[in-house]
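Anyone have tokens for Heme-binding protein? Sequence:
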Amino acid sequence: MARTASTPAKLTVGALAALGIAWVGWGAYSKGTTERLPYTTALALDGVEIRRYPDTVVARTTAADEEEAFRRLFEYIDGGNQSREGIPMTAPVTTEPEKIAMTAPVASERSAEGVRMSFFLPGEYTAEGAPKPETKAVTIEHLGARTLAVRSFSWYATEGRVARNQRRLFDTLSAHDLTPTGDPFLLRYDAPWTPPFMRRNEVAIELAD
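Reply: yep, here.
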């Protein structure tokens, strides 16, 4: 005679299914309610988009790691500014490697790998009118209109996935005689709790005019 699943087992499966549905639902809700940086796509080339971005304003910081950088910027938009004003979260968040100065006990300086992270402020803010940070570690900067080459990928943005997609981005640009300028950076669009299969990540680099 076939055995049927026990009541506790059924409850466990049901609870896990409900959690999974809630997880996916929250990911979809977060995507639908977060303001995203506008752009126009000028060209699509072998998985790479050439995009034109308008003038934007960012809150920016450089820190030893991503957790510290994110904490500073989140505190700023969460009311930790001189105006005590909450600022809506927007997407994407940009991350790029950065050399930072670390002062040793003997007062000499050495270079170390850090991270520079930026939050884009909503479109109604200007660099002059945005709430002023309470700490000098966070700056408000204006970015002029620019053209970016962008390659998208999903799942978690591990170092390996980022590196592979950067190589493919550079290969495509080289094949089409497009000249990048500066260093590549990472764009992440989703909250940390978004399911990996719903995540949108991009590697990007500015193109020369």
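The longest strand covers residues 109-120.
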